[in-house]
Amino acid sequence: MDKVIAIDGPSASGKSTLARTLSEKLGIPYINTGSMFRATALAAQKRNIAWDDEKALQDMLRTVTMEYKVNSNGEFELFCDGEFPGEALRSAEIAAGASKVGTCPAVREELKNQQRRMSAIGWIVMEGRDIGTVIFPDAEFKFFITASPLERARRRLAQEGDKAGGTLEEVAAAIAARDEQDSNRAVAPLKPAADAELVDNSNMTLEETFNYIYNKVKDAVL
Prior knowledge:
- With 222 residues, this protein is α/β, with parallel strands linked by helices.
- Strands 2-5-1-6-7 form a 5-stranded parallel sheet. A two-stranded antiparallel ribbon has the order 3-4.
- A hairpin with a 5-residue loop joins strand 3 and strand 4.
- The longest helix is centred in the C-terminal third of the chain and has 16 residues.
- The two termini are 17 Å apart.
């Protein structure tokens, strides 16, 4: 078994906060694979590479360096092409680009290889959409975190405000559309691994979600 806590699920389910908090509490690295797809979209944009140009994206990723380093706040953060992209990864445009580049098999293969190498350092918590199904099918722990589109829209609006891109109903509709696209894509669709524990936190606080997962993994990791 790989010493990995795999946290999968759709956007705005709280999985990023959960994974980051687990990392801090357990003292192990946190790998956000979604940021790697966003960084791919951002790097392509900077190089004027179309998000559906699979060959160009593949060639680019063979020259782009991605790793997780401790930032000035003492947190693990994606370090790409010599810098922390930070806020540049969080725009709606780059999020859309990440979803597009993620449909390219060659992109997923290149990033999968990079992600698997990150497990060599020991216990890690890795968050994304296909960690338990594709990246680490032999992960020690697998969780699929989800919530209703409406609840996830509320969370996104609370976090991002006007940057979320519309009213509660519009954001919920966009989230549902993204779910539909990601769940039906040919490559690595968004779905729980057969042996993952499904955690619907629509009626749970993020603290309650964390405590539930932490109590499941602490004895093995600490």
